[in-house]
Amino acid sequence: MINAALVLEGGSLRCMFTSGALDVFVEQGIEMSYVNGVSAGSMCGLNYIARHVGRNLEINTHYLHDRRYISMKNMLKKRLIFNFDFLFGELSHELVPFDYETFENSQQIFEAVATRCKTGKPEYFTKGKCSDIYKAVEASSSMPLLSRMVTLDGKKYLDGGISMPIAYERPMELGYDKIVLVLTREQGYRKHQEGRWVKRAYDRYFAPLPSLRQSLRDIPERYNRIQEELDRLEAEGRIFIIRPDRPVEVSRLEQDVHKIQALYDEGRRIALEQLPALKNYLELPQ
Question: Fewer CB in a 10 Å sphere around the end CB: N or C, the chain?
Fold first, then answer.
């Protein structure tokens, strides 16, 4: 195991890029001692630690149009665009089994990042320490307006990307010197303000939660500030970033299987191209 940290950005189905890159890591035996993930990045982290090459690709190609997984019917009936009950239930136990034993017995530290609805601040849930790491991953992946709030230990949570889109500072606080990030946007990408209708929906739906509303309003500024900081740290050689080398055409709720396959393939390609530089950064033999 390598004494290094792996930080995974979210992005819903844009994380197929992340899945491709992490599958290369597993195949190459690159096992980092600490992993954190935000939103769909936390789901990618589960598969990475369980060493599931190709599992996320199989789920998001074979079940993309399965209404039990993603559908507006889920949204209207359960307030879940992604049906986490199906994802962590029948899908993970029977259809595309998740290796719970490998994941839970791994010595790798894993943290899922979710946003506390009351405070609008990020909280970190650690495998083996929190009451339910899978419920924490669900909370981390629950997009505002498109998902219901998730209750964990009596508290309400939503998508970690609201308050902490890329949790790069966390491993620094924990003392890691080697930090690898897998991002789902190309270098130079910056977020724009949400449209007025989305803002109105936030204000109306989250009216009782002023701190969460403020955190939602601050998403673009926070994200862009983090990107500028990551550019600086990367230039100084303090972090190593793997990310798309072109604008990503896959949307958060992409329905084109071919685009999903292509983004996964792009993640694999870029990870393989950067493998020598990554091994050099991690001080691994070539």
Answer: C
Element (H, E) at 70: none
Closest CA to 233 of 276, 180, 277: 180
Residues 8, 22: Cα–Cα separation, whole Å: 10
Query: Are residues 45 and 16 in contact, defined by beta-carbon separation less than 8 angstroms?
Result: no
Q: Using CB atoms within 10 Å of the CB of residue 235, give its burial: 0 to 12 exposed, 13 to 18 middle, 19+ buried.
A: exposed
Q: Give 32's strand partners.
A: 2
Distance in angstroms (rounded) separating the CA atoms of residues 264 and 279: 21
Q: What is the pLDDT of residues 131-174, one digit of tens each?
A: 999 999 999 999 998 889 999 999 999 999 999 999 999 999 99
Q: In this predicted model, what pLDDT tens digit does every residue of 267-276 receive, in sequence order?
A: 999 999 999 9
Pull the structure tokens for residue 265.
Answer: 């393939």
- At residue 138, what are phi and psi to the nearest 5 degrees? -60, -45
Distances (CA, A) of 39 to 62, 165, 166: 21, 8, 10
Token pair, residue 267, equals 């993640």
263 residue type, one letter: L
Q: Is 172 exposed, middle or buried (0-12, 13-18, 19+ CB in 10 A)?
A: middle
SS3 66: coil
Question: What CA–CA distance (Å, rounded) separates 206 from 29?
Answer: 44
CA neighbor of 219 nearest in space, from 150, 166, 259, 149: 166
* DSSP annotation string for 211-241: HHHHHHHTHHHHHHHHHHHHHHHHHTTSEEE
When pLDDT is cut at 50, 70 and 90, the band that residue 186 belongs to is: very high
Q: Is the dihedral of CA 173, 177, 183, 189 positive or negative?
A: positive
